[in-house]
Amino acid sequence: MEARPAVDDAALGREALHVLEANWMGSATVPAPGLYPHQWSWDSAFVAIGLARHLPGRGMAELDGLFQGQWATGMIPHIVFHTSEAYFPGPSVWRSSEHADAPPAILTSGLTTPPLHALAVWRLWRHTADVGYVRRVFPALAAQHAYLATARDLGGGGLAAIVHPWESGMDDSPAWDEPLAALPEIRYGYRTPGLDERHPASDHDRYVWLALRYRDAGYRPEYLRDEHPFAVEDPLFNGVWLASCQALAALAPVAGFDPAPHAEQAAVIRAALMERLWDGCFHARDLRTNRLIPVTTVAAFGPLLDPELPRHAVTALVEILESARFMGATGYPVPSCEIRAPQFDRTRYWRGPSWVNTNWLLRRAAAVHDLPHLVQLLTSSTLRLVRQAGFRECFDPFDGSGRGCRDFSWSAALTLDLLADTLAA
Ligand code: GLC
């Protein structure tokens, strides 16, 4: 554990705001200075959630910056490039400017990430009651959801498929090992300084190859459905989508729209999650083999965000979460992969370390299911992590030491939210 002076709640909150101030670049917050110098989609949703009580106007501006990058298809890209700062894979890889559906005035990637944005807008609405804002952004959110329901239901069963590990938000999760291993051996030798140590070179080359294939197919949904070699239904992505559908249903009357289609979409996702991804726990489905991917990761708990998830599934998931497979055996939960899995690695990115954003999502899930002891445990252990190691990207689940970037925006933003709840309690 690296030494860090103990800080009280007020000082921790000030430090978090300071990080978010330093990472704000005028139209968006970068995830971390240096390594991630542009706007990342679900990072921005977490930042907006964290700012909702403190600087809601900035939270709104954050999402506005992201929505500028939305494609005419409704797709919200996983990266929006507001500046020309070097990053790989950057605009020359994605070539959004050559695509008729991409926004003309701003460069973006061609992939998406977990659709947390409606939930973020709902949080902003709850803390501001700003009807004008909700009316303004509602169409963008509805278009994003319509895109997922049509272009991304590649399995035809009511779930949205991810077509690249980067779309999961858990880039290097062991859940993607099997589908990646089925791809051809690729040797490009592209490297990203600072990110290289996170995954083997062969995986990185496959990531790039997958992105180029999709790009060269014109980002067409028919290509994704019929040919693209990576297509996976992920429980975290779909659990987040379901929660955002419920948020849209709550926002619809504020914006003057009918909530029913969004509530119905949530019901479709819930039924599909149980039918397609449930086997006593939630596992991702590889649509190319039509098999569930057996490794259990923190993504399994994504559907817990749904207050209407069947009771037996809630009970089973909470038992697994609290067991020695996840929270029970680690001092600094929640590990991103179950610790008894052969793929578990306490030091490697999404293959073991604990993350503030997944802890926050699980804490919300615990609140939704009225599990105060779990809310309390997740709050205190997450605050302990950042208090001791700083706003790091992720943390060793056994000793709490920080890993990855420093001054990581979502770690700071969600700390603000946790602190506000602690003070309010
Ligand atoms: C990494 C993470 C992803 C995040 C991005 C920017 O790629 O896996 O979830 O959005 O960094 O922080």
Automatic annotation (TrEMBL):
Residues 36-411 form the Mannosylglycerate hydrolase MGH1-like glycoside hydrolase domain. Keywords: Glycosidase, Hydrolase. It comes from the Bacteria. Coiled coil: none annotated. The keyword Transcription regulation does not apply. Pfam families: MGH1-like_GH. One of its GO terms (biological process) is oligosaccharide metabolic process. InterPro entries: 6-hairpin_glycosidase_sf, 6hp_glycosidase-like_sf, Glycoside_hydrolase_63, MGH1-like_GH. One of its GO terms (molecular function) is Glc3Man9GlcNAc2 oligosaccharide glucosidase activity. Belongs to the glycosyl hydrolase 63 family. This is Glycogen debranching enzyme.
